[in-house]
Write a structure and sequence with these properties.
Elements: E1 3-4, H1 15-27, H2 37-56, E2 65-68, H3 71-83, E3 91-95, H4 100-111, E4 115-119, H5 129-135, E5 140-144, H6 158-168, E6 172-176, H7 188-191, E7 195-199, E8 210-214, H8 229-232, H9 240-278, E9 282-284, E10 295-300, H10 309-318, E11 321-322, E12 324-325, E13 328-330, E14 333-335, H11 338-342, E15 353-357, H12 364-383
Parallel strand pairs: 1-11, 3-4, 3-5, 5-6, 6-7
Antiparallel strand pairs: 2-8, 7-8, 9-10, 10-15, 12-15, 13-14
Length: 386
């Protein structure tokens, strides 16, 4: 038995994507900056992908799409690209449940003298727009709030948060939409965000493909200097196979997003209801209603210190089931999840989180087998069996 339930970490490339990447590696590998026919083929693939990604998020201009290596680089480009324009440290607002690709750059800026506000969240991981309004200052230059939280699945009210930001300040608004784009409709014109990060391998592109949407008129500095590719914002020869995979994955996602989101949501609801019925040792984390359609996360309600999320991940892996845990390991010690801590869980609880995330290949029988296997494992832990 082999069941993959970790699509929030990465997804398997679609067959159509693999076919396209193979074709480009075979005959479309020319440098898109070159003037000959090989370069022209590369440039055509590059610009086609730019249009496809722009169309997926309803960007008014394909020039708003800056290709990167993935979500982390896009987040870093947004954070440092804006803050490097300032001569002196100013004020940034983020949520307390950001991905490390936001939290780590902000920690760096904090050491350089920047004033950082981390907005609190409720027990379900949601930001209150009123808290954002209170946190805005005259020198706030950037607000960055994650759209769909990867660990607990909670979706933030981004449109409302943008409205509050624009009404009460001149700050720019960025959102890490890595878990949202390709899964649910994302319309940058409706949201009115200034910057948005996305990553291709989260919705069946290949790893190493990502983009930052930069609203027309928004200025930011580059992190890389060289040939001036990507509107002088990301120098370096573009990786056409990865970029083309992102473009095709974007087009394919648009075609079946509605039906696939509905199917995944039904699977998620089925899984949550069944697992809470059959397995009394688990408690749902995150927002039940404002939630990514492919995502279910839980806390293990067993007092034994040795029973952590990471242990359950390893145990299920031995059974052929791939899931994820939010806690980290440092020097052999399991560390609590910062996200669960921010949501009000204790340190002992915050090492017991587990995540299941589904993809286009997930079936009900996969979930039934997983629940049965997990229940047996936890029953054995209660009974003290190895």
């Amino acid at each position: 038995m082999s069941i993959y339930l970790d699509s929030s970490a990465t997804t398997a490339p679609r067959p159509e994507v693999i076919e396209l990447v193979t074709e480009i590696l075979t005959s479309g590998w020319g440098n898109p900056s070159s003037l000959h026919s090989w370069g022209e083929r590369g440039a055509m693939a590059l610009e086609k992908a730019r249009w496809q990604v722009a169309d997926l998020i309803n960007a008014s201009s394909p020039n708003s799409i800056i290709f990167t290596s993935g979500g982390t680089e896009s987040d870093n480009l947004a954070i440092f690209g804006i803050t490097s324009l300032c001569n002196t440290p100013q004020h940034i607002i983020i949520s307390s449940v950001e991905h490390s690709a936001i939290e780590r750059p902000v920690q760096f800026l904090e050491k350089q003298g920047w004033h950082i506000t981390r907005l609190p969240v409720n027990r379900e991981g949601r930001v209150n727009p009123h808290d954002l309004q209170k946190a805005l200052l005259p020198n706030t230059v950037l607000v960055s709030i994650i759209y769909g939280q990867s660990e607990v699945g909670t979706i933030q009210p981004i449109k409302k948060l943008v409205e509050v930001t624009k009404k009460h300040s001149q700050a720019l608004f960025h959102t890490d939409a890595v878990q949202m784009v390709g899964r649910l409709p994302v319309d940058v014109e409706v949201l009115q965000v200034d910057l948005l990060s996305l990553s291709g391998h989260k919705f069946y592109g290949i790893q190493g493909s990502g983009a930052l949407y930069v609203k027309q008129g928004v200025k930011l500095n580059s992190l890389l200097y060289g040939g001036g590719q990507e509107n002088n914002l990301r120098s370096g020869t573009q990786g056409i196979p990865a970029i083309a995979s992102l473009g095709l994955a974007s087009s394919l996602a648009q075609k079946d997003m509605e039906s696939e989101a509905m199917r995944l949501r039904e699977l998620k609801n089925y899984f949550i209801e069944l697992i809470l019925t059959k397995c009394p040792y688990l408690t749902l984390t995150g927002d039940l209603f404002h939630r990514l359609p492919h995502h279910a996360s839980f806390l293990i309600n067993l007092p034994q210190e040795g029973i952590t999320g990471r242990k359950i991940v390893r145990d299920l892996s031995l059974k052929g089931i791939g899931i994820s845990a939010g806690s980290a390991c440092s020097s052999g010690k399991t560390l609590p999840s910062p996200v669960l801590l921010a949501m009000g869980y204790s340190e002992k609880e915050a090492i017991k989180g587990i995540r299941f995330s589904f993809d286009r290949n997930t079936t009900k029988s996969d979930l039934d087998f997983t629940i049965n296997t997990l229940t047996i494992l936890l029953d054995r832990e209660i009974g003290g069996e190895n």
